[in-house]
Design goal:
Helix 8 packs antiparallel against helix 10. The strands form three sheets. Strands 1-2-3-4-10-7-5 form a seven-stranded mixed β-sheet. Helix content is 52%, strand content 10%. The model has no long low-confidence stretch (mean pLDDT 90). Strand 3 and strand 4 form a beta hairpin. It is built from 18 helices and twelve strands. The N and C termini lie far apart (42 Å). Involved in the coupling of aromatic side chains of the heptapeptide of vancomycin.
């Protein structure tokens, strides 16, 4: 495990096998100083009980303006700490109450459970079309051919992003969520902000039947989202709305291929699928380390006191494999009692899109298992590569054979 005088290093060992990395930390240093190759410094929290408590602790802030100041204090001159364009970061995931409360209320009014439920027929239609193409090919990259286009198409249609713009938007998203060069982050975040402003202006002038048009016009006691808030909210919903599910579908299929007994159990009893989705979320959740937080006053975590003004990174991936909460946590068990995992976070920042991600995963995985009698990895397991990201846990590709 990489280390330095400034703490544990988030380096190659962390990226190549985060589960082994976190296993050591949970046992030896569940709240420890960390450093990243880009100069970032903070604290890493890895145990379930600590993670759940901190995710709901009001002494841990997500205020993006204050976080920027802390990052600049750490960064080299001319480096803004790798933040995306300011216009994209003013959303509810980067806000504390009362700002967060207000933004979430407005979004919840448009992005309802009923809205998600209405999407089922379209998700089933897109799934069937993608499975048809996979059947013709026989050997495919599951990420490129299925896990990626399904949720990307759904969220873009939901928000009203034209089909011809989706590949461009997806490329921007990949840059912003990976450990990309600062210049690339600046370039792509600025391009995405400009694109979203133009898209929203179009919805304001000519509303259509989509969520973005509804967000432009939704109000609560006369309150509406400002132009800047709309851009940031569109960015959050678009990026979070497809990245989570892309990685969930890919990781779930790999988990089943690695555990043929669980694949057989799921084929034998499809009613286990909703339960299995929760186990996939626990076993290999799509978010590795939760989005950035910092202490506004000293916070004690076990035997460690984290001072005020320090960044805190909470590993959802590690918390969900904590043997103190989940017996035999490194074993996939689609019959495990559901609930309790932190894959979608906890507290006021619990993922607003969780119902949509669950619905998409259930339709996608159910369709895949019903359509194909045989699923097999098309290549050697050691050739698989995970994305170069501290935030996202997802496969770059998953070559499979279907029959």
């Amino acid at each position: 495990m990489g280390g330095s005088d400034e703490g544990i290093m988030l380096d190659g060992e962390f990226l190549s096998d985060p589960h082994a990395f976190f296993r050591k930390l949970r046992a030896e240093a569940p709240a420890c100083r960390l450093a990243a190759p880009n100069g970032f410094k903070g604290w890493l929290v890895t145990r379930y009980a600590d993670a759940k408590e901190l995710l709901a602790d009001s002494r841990i802030s997500k205020d993006t303006a204050r976080a920027r100041k802390l990052l600049r204090a750490q960064a080299e001159p001319g480096d803004d700490g790798g933040f995306v364009d300011t216009a994209l970061s003013q959303h509810m995931l980067n806000a504390d109450p009362p700002v967060h409360t207000r933004l979430r209320k407005l979004v919840n009014k448009a992005f309802t459970a009923r809205t998600v439920a209405r999407l089922r027929p379209r998700i089933e239609e897109i799934t069937a079309e993608l499975l048809d193409e996979m059947a013709k090919a026989g050997s495919v990259d599951l990420v490129k051919s299925f896990a990626f286009p399904l949720p990307t198409t759904v969220i873009c249609e939901l928000l009203g992003v034209p089909g011809e713009d989706r590949e461009r938007f997806s490329a921007w998203s990949a840059t912003l969520l990976s450990r990309s060069e600062l210049e690339a982050v600046r370039r792509d975040s600025a391009a995405m902000a400009t694109y979203l402003r133009e898209l929203i202006d179009g919805k304001r002038q000519t509303p259509t039947e989509d969520l973005l048009s509804e967000l432009v016009h939704v109000s609560e006691e006369g309150d509406r989202l400002s132009a800047e808030e709309l851009v940031a909210m569109a960015f959050l919903l678009l990026v979070a709305g497809h990245e989570t599910t892309v990685n969930l579908i890919g990781s779930s299929v790999l988990a089943l291929l690695d555990n043929p007994d669980q694949l057989a159990a799921l084929r034998a009893d499809e009613s286990l699928l909703p339960n299995a989705i929760e186990e996939f979320l626990r076993f290999e959740g799509p978010v590795n380390i939760a989005t950035l937080r910092f202490t506004v006053e000293p916070v004690r975590v076990g035997e460690v006191e984290i001072p005020a003004g320090e960044f805190v990174l909470i590993s959802l991936l590690s918390a969900n494999r904590d043997p103190g909460r989940f017996p035999d946590p490194d074993r996939l068990d689609v019959t495990r009692a559901p609930g309790g995992h932190l894959a979608f976070g906890h507290g006021i920042h619990y993922c607003v899109g969780a119902p949509l991600a669950r619905l998409e995963a259930e339709i996608a995985l159910g369709g895949l298992l019903r359509r194909f009698d045989s699923l097999a990895l098309d290549g050697e397991p050691e050739t698989l590569r995970w994305r170069d990201s501290t935030l996202i846990r997802g496969l770059e590709s998953l070559p499979i054979r279907v029959h």
